[in-house]
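Researcher: Let's do a round of design. I'm pasting the structure tokens now; please hold your answer until I've finished.
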């Protein structure tokens, strides 16, 4: 067995900050039509875009991504400042958004980048989670024929891995009546 390709930080936020963030992410304003797959026929789910690139790293941006995040979601901008000073030191923000998958919706295996130094940070904001809910994030080898890591969506957990690693959000059971919400920070090296 090789070392896990993911770094996990549990209890990332103070419990009061975690609760406020959960309430913030549950506010209205979700759009529908996002999908996480290399295949266009994947299930669609809900999403909220906060800052940065919407589709690819080649699209033009207007202004600084951190400024955009501070305007659209000051709470998330504050969280980003903490990540930039800690687990994501040496990186700059490329994109910040949230996904909301209802029970029964399936993600598809995909990569977030083709550059190994681009990182994906997934925050799991739920106040409680059960193994019966499903919704794990699975990471695969390059051939996509072997699971190399499984990330349980433990409340208040942050997982960071290279954006070139194929990964998928597994379906969530209908036993959970909430959306499976994840908050994403996509980053690139600061230089």
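Researcher: That's everything. Go ahead.
Model: Designed sequence:
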């Amino acid at each position: 067995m090789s070392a896990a390709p993911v770094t996990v930080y549990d209890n990332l936020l103070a419990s009061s900050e975690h609760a406020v963030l959960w309430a913030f992410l549950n506010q209205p304003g979700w759009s529908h039509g996002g999908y996480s797959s290399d295949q266009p026929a994947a299930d669609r789910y809900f999403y909220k875009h906060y800052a940065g690139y919407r589709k690819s790293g080649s699209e033009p941006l207007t202004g600084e991504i951190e400024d955009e995040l501070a305007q659209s979601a000051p709470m998330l901008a504050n969280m980003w400042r903490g990540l930039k000073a800690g687990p994501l030191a040496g990186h700059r923000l490329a994109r910040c958004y949230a996904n909301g998958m209802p029970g029964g919706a399936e993600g598809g295996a995909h990569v977030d980048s083709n550059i190994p130094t681009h990182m994906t940070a997934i925050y799991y904001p739920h106040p409680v989670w059960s193994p019966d809910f499903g919704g794990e994030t699975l990471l695969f080898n390059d051939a996509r024929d072997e699971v190399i890591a499984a990330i349980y969506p433990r409340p208040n957990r942050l997982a960071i891995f290279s954006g070139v690693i194929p990964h998928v959000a597994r379906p969530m059971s209908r036993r959970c009546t909430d959306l499976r919400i994840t908050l994403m920070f996509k980053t690139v090296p600061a230089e």
